[in-house]
Amino acid sequence: MRQPQFMRSTTFHWALAVAGVLAVFVVVLFGFIYWKTDDYLIARSDTMIARQLNFIAGLSAERRRTAIDEHLKQDSRGVQYAGLFDPDGHKMAGNLEQLPPGLKINDSVQTVTVVRTLAAGRETHAIRAIARRMSDGNALVIGREVDETREISHVVGQALALGLLPALCLCLLAGAWLSMRAQRRVEEVNQRVQRIIAGDLRERLPHRNIDEPFSKLAVIVNGMLDEMEAMIHALAGVGNDIAHDLRTPLTRARLTLERGRTNATNLEQLQGVVDKAIANVDQSLAIITALLRLAEIENSRRSAAFGSVQLPEMLREICDIYEPIAENKKIDLRVEVRHQLSVRADRDLLLEAVANLVDNAIKFTPEGGKVEIELLRGDRETIVRVADTGSGISEQERDAVLRRFYRSDKIRNTPGVGLGLSLVVAIVKLHGFRLAIHSGAGGRLDIICPDPQPV
Amino acid sequence: MAKVLLIEDDSETAEEITAELADRGFEVEWSADGIEGLDKARSLRPDAMIVDRLLPGMDGLTVIEALRKEQVRTPVLVLSALGAVDDRVRGLRMGGDDYLTKPFAIVELIARVEALLRRPAESRETTLRVGPLELDLIERTAKRGDRVIDLLPREFRLLEYMMQRSDQLLTRAMLLEEVWNYKFIPATNLVDVHMGRLRHKVDGPGETPMIHNVRGSGFILRTGP
């Protein structure tokens, strides 16, 4: 048989466990009260019969009989026992037929069993009794029934039933209620989440007051959803940029081909048209390649290719490669290395990043300018600096240049796909390095490589 | 006539590659999946293979590994999506094979297949000669006829690479990878600038040009016009 949903929830199981523990606790508590009360009552009754014994024993032999009779007559509830026996154990007075067997005549209160003869028949009673041998050889016995404790246990039992059952029921009810409430919230959340999965990114989880754990959780999740929504919108923006940047060369290619098909009159013209179209398609492919490369770097978590990279040697190599290009533009390209430094990195990627910076610097520096690659030592960090005498990057542009496809209006006519710096940032991030862009006259970009933390 | 086996599942790409290779005088066999491709590689014994990395039936790299286990040393050019260039693919270049990322230009593909087919033989020659050009690998000197050419180390390395592969189209990407050890295509036309300088030194005024620029594709070093 399937249990109802709420009975299978952990909340309900917890409620059950709590109810169980509570029940055990209450039973122990009542038991303790019963035991203590019983002890107290017996002690009191013991004192009473001892006092009674002392009183009767203190009387003269003749008056003892009357005192016993008096004593028994005053007992309306019929719980008192008394008896005077001669040295042979024959009854002389009282309501005990014989000396209770097992009763030691030693002045101490004991529990014994007596048989009482009534009109209705014989009854066996457990009583507390005390006995003393008198100076004349007779034995005096005083006793009192302790069956009262049974009544107390009855009362205690009743109280227990009265208290415990409703408490248990309450526990179960509370458990069921809490469990169902939690289930309802989960169901509610589930419905919203399903809507989010279905694509409604503006949906948020319900929350009431912040002190409730469920609401706290909902607020946290909502915060995450806000962040994700913003990210997805940003991605969509990038997607639009990509579409735009791809469409431009493709549109040009299409136009060229269309016009060529109509207007070209000989093979040479047609080839010219096709060459132009191919150049435009190549531009589109270059964008796709650059994007894929960017994605490849951003997604790669591999550090297997990491090793110690000697920076001076690497920087000289870059300088060596770009030197002719700089010379063609009459730019003074030089490497300034003051320290023999190395970092842990993927050499190919780091070379690509620095080469990109140098490439950019040469591109944006006017003829006759200067580009300097420096290797510096900072406070617990190694800095690779590429500085130039170009126009630099203004404060306003600083964030924008890191965005994909951003091309400063100043450089609209310079060839490139506008992904260079994004690539540098991706590589730098992969290594746990930082890229710093300085504003002010001249361009200055630093790749800051913090020293590895000592393990 | 060199025999080339093409294993590529996209029929349109395969058709273009086949047509282009046939135009250049290759005999081409085409397989659309890995298992059939492996069979053909065993039975036809091609001189070179072009293998797409992602194939139905059997992954391109698995095909190559299977062949290598059978001691088949046919040079292979692997076509791989850019995002899928991992260490296994990179390792190909170390083993004398090559890879090309999609999308690629057809001239790039042809140039690389030709390079695979005409891998320079291991030689103990310490002097390279192409027509009037002479390169002493020990002395690290270059001469064209009697004229001594003064070369920077990088230029020497470039000329050495080109002389080992004379009469062969060398694309910019190939030069970047092999001469400069660049694993990426820089934004600037690095190769053209370096090549321009080298050409200036190799082809003096009045001499027949030896370094030729093939429009849109790359460079060739040859004696003839």
Q: Regions of chain A with pLDDT < 50 over 5+ consecutive residues?
A: 407-417
Could you say how many structural domains of chain A there are in total? 3
User: Mean pLDDT of chain B, as a whole number?
Assistant: 87
CATH class of the largest domain in chain B: Alpha Beta
- Class of secondary structure makeup of chain A: alpha+beta
What is the fourth-level CATH superfamily of the largest domain in chain B? Answer: Response regulator
Distance between the termini of chain A: 58 Å
List the strand order in the largest sheet of chain A: 2-1-5-4-3
Describe it:
The complex is a heterodimer of chains A (455) and B (225). Chain A is of the alpha+beta class and 455 residues long. Chain A folds into three domains: 1-201, no CATH class; 213-298, Orthogonal Bundle (Helix Hairpins); 303-450, 2-Layer Sandwich (Heat Shock Protein 90). Chain A is 54% helix and 18% strand. Chain A is built from nine helices and twelve strands. In chain A, the strands form three sheets. A five-stranded antiparallel sheet of chain A has the order 2-1-5-4-3. In chain A, strands 7-9-10-12-11 form a five-stranded mixed sheet. In chain A, strand 3 (110-118) and strand 4 form a beta hairpin. The longest helix of chain A has 51 residues, at 213-263. Chain A starts with a helix and ends in a 5-residue tail after the last strand. Mean pLDDT of chain A is 82; it is low at 407-417. In chain B, a hairpin with a 2-residue loop joins strand 6 (127-130) and strand 7 (133-136). Chain B folds into two domains: 3-117, Rossmann fold; 127-221, Orthogonal Bundle (Arc Repressor Mutant, subunit A), CATH 1.10.10. Chain B has eight helices and twelve strands. With 225 residues, chain B is α/β, with parallel strands linked by helices. Chain B is elongated. The mean pLDDT of chain B is 87. In chain B, strands 2-1-3-4-5 form a five-stranded parallel sheet, with helices on both faces. In chain B, strands 6-7-8-9 form a four-stranded antiparallel sheet, with helices on one face. Chain A binds chain B through residues 275, 278, 282, 285, 288-289, 292-293, 295-296, 304-305, 320-322, 324-325, 328, 348, 351-352, 355-356, 359, 362-363, 415-417, 420, and chain B through 81-83, 85, 87, 101, 103, 105, 154, 180, 182-188, 190, 193-194, 196-197, 216.
